[in-house]
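Severity: low
Component: inverse-folding endpoint
Summary: output formatting inconsistent between runs
Steps to reproduce: submit the following structure tokens with default settings.
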């Protein structure tokens, strides 16, 4: 069992720029580090700070697995895995719908659902929405092209009826001309039973099989590795990180995360631009 000892509090808890400092003792070192990618490891333009790369390198030097847990698909995550210089290991991708191994790159497990009803309801309420269905390890099949750079891998435009025809690990709903608030209301109107969904930082809705989250994917990885959830250090910044932060023995939100993400965390580190992820990792692997 991993025991976390809070020793010093700097600033108000769970507010941007505040940090609940922890002084680790050797026996408390995490046995696994779970890291979100966007807004945690890389910025919105995909740039990886040297401080984060170096901090993750120290995690690996300590012999502790560093597992990427991301909303990206396999094709979008593997490049970051390689840029970090991580050894061969597991990746939790597609918000937990897919568990992959990096070398050789392969899918270990996947969870699917029938997307037809959800797609019908989305387009009934928001006809101008763009729909993407993930093709694991390949890319996406889409109803219309998404803005450049938002989806990784091969992109194929197909009729909506074809997108509905096969089980999916997840679907993405997007409208570049709408606001995030519109998509919060869309999610409320859908009342989506039988699936798990996350509203992104833009007009983006990510829909996965029921009960599937980064936490469930990480639990699957931990079961394979023989590691307890209580021994995991997890860092994230988005709505799709909330379950992961609550599940982990120590869940840490990046300082400029949304309020509800910070509220779900055990501690809040510095903002991304102030090296928050590296600050937290260096407390354990400095």
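Observed output (run 2 of 3):
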């Amino acid at each position: 069992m991993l025991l976390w000892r809070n020793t010093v509090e700097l600033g108000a808890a769970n507010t941007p720029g505040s940090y609940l400092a922890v002084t680790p003792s050797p026996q408390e070192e995490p046995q696994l580090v779970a890291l979100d990618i966007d807004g945690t490891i890389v910025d919105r333009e995909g740039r990886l700070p040297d401080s984060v790369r170096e901090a993750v390198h120290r995690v690996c030097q300590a012999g502790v697995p560093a597992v990427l847990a991301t909303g990206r698909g396999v094709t979008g995550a593997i490049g970051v895995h390689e840029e970090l210089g991580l050894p061969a290991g597991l990746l939790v991708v597609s918000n937990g719908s897919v568990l992959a191994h990096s070398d050789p790159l392969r899918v270990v497990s996947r969870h699917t659902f029938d997307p037809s009803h959800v797609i019908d309801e989305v387009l009934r309420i928001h006809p101008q929405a763009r729909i993407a269905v993930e093709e694991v390890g390949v890319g996406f099949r889409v109803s219309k092209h998404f803005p450049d750079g938002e989806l990784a891998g091969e992109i194929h435009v197909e009729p909506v009826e074809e997108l509905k025809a096969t089980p999916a690990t997840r679907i993405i709903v997007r409208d570049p001309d709408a606001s995030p608030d519109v998509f919060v209301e869309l999610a409320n109107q859908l009342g989506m039973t039988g699936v798990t969904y996350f509203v992104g930082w833009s007009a983006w809705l990510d829909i996965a099989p029921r009960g599937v989250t980064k936490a469930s994917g990480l639990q699957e990885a931990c079961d394979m590795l023989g590691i307890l959830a209580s021994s995991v250090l997890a860092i994230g910044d988005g709505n799709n990180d909330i379950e992961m932060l609550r599940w982990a023995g120590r869940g840490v939100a990046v300082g400029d995360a949304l309020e509800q993400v910070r509220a779900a965390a055990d501690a809040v580190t510095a903002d991304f631009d102030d090296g928050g992820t590296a600050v937290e990792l260096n407390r354990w692997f400095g």
